[in-house]
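SEQUENCE-TO-STRUCTURE ENTRY
===========================
What this section holds: a protein sequence and its matching fold, both as plain text.
Question of interest: how does this chain fold, as expressed in backbone structure tokens?
***
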Amino acid sequence: MQIMKIGIPWARLALQNYWPEDEPPEPAHEEVREIPVHCPKCDSTEVVLEDVVSEGETSPPKYEWTCDACGHRWEDDGMLKEG
């Protein structure tokens, strides 16, 4: 397609609102809400992920955590529970 120089401003306006009929719209992405990790001893959110330990390909990894507030160390499967 060719456009004369005088028609470029109108062509740009048309192209800003152009949406091809055969191109599907982008799927809407759900916003992921972050669930804070709490220390099981003092309930502080000042926790640090220290390490991820894999015991093999068939078993799920274990996560090692440390609480900066009280120094408590624990290990879990990384599944956070809201509540």
In short: The mean pLDDT is 84. The chain has one helix and three strands.
